[in-house]
Amino acid sequence: MDIKEIQELIKFVAKSGVSEVEIESKGFKINIKTPPYKRGLVGGPEVQIVQAVPQAVQMAAPAIAAAPVAQAAPAAEAPAKAAPAKAEANYESVNSPMIGTFYRSPSPEKPPFVSVGDEVKKGDVICIIEAMKLFNEIESEVSGRIVKVLVDDANPVEYDQPLFLIEPH
């Protein structure tokens, strides 16, 4: 399956209302899940591609459509990854599951989902990442206190880029 076919499959799942599609072929497995409709925001497909090479490789398929973003992000990504490395022993980082645009609030006139010092529980929505015109709610993977927001609002993010530092309970 080539990149063009994967993009078409993602678009099909997003438009069709199918909740989950899984395809397994020579050398890889692709699983596309569409989260349920939440709080007035349309959730986009979550894509996981696992390639059967010596080590399993996971990547977000929306990276395919965001090639121009990838050129501008490496310079911005380096400082973001350096900061969590120092505090990694005490804090958990919440990383981006896809490439897209990071938003702290559901709309410009509404307050951010979370701010520094806020307490969050596992599963609380902490931000949105827009990918391919779909707004994906990102949930906290741990319970704790927000220590630092590592990305500015409306900035592009890379796959697996740290977004928040959380002091776990």
What CATH architecture of the largest domain would you give? Answer: Beta Barrel
Overall outline: globular
Relevant CATH superfamily of the largest domain:
RNA polymerase II/Efflux pump adaptor protein, barrel-sandwich hybrid domain
CATH topological fold name of the largest domain: OB fold (Dihydrolipoamide Acetyltransferase, E2P)
Please work out how many helical segments DSSP would assign: 2
| Radius of gyration from the alpha-carbon trace, in angstroms | 16 Å
Distance between the termini: 43 Å
Q: Report low-confidence residues grouped into runs of 5 or more.
A: 38-42, 51-80
How many strands?
12
Note the topology:
Blueprint: H1 3-16, E1 20-25, E2 28-33, E3 46-52, E4 56-59, H2 67-87, E5 92-95, E6 100-103, E7 119-120, E8 125-131, E9 134-139, E10 144-149, E11 155-157, E12 162-168
Antiparallel strand pairs: 1-2, 2-3, 3-4, 5-12, 6-8, 6-11, 7-10, 8-9, 10-12
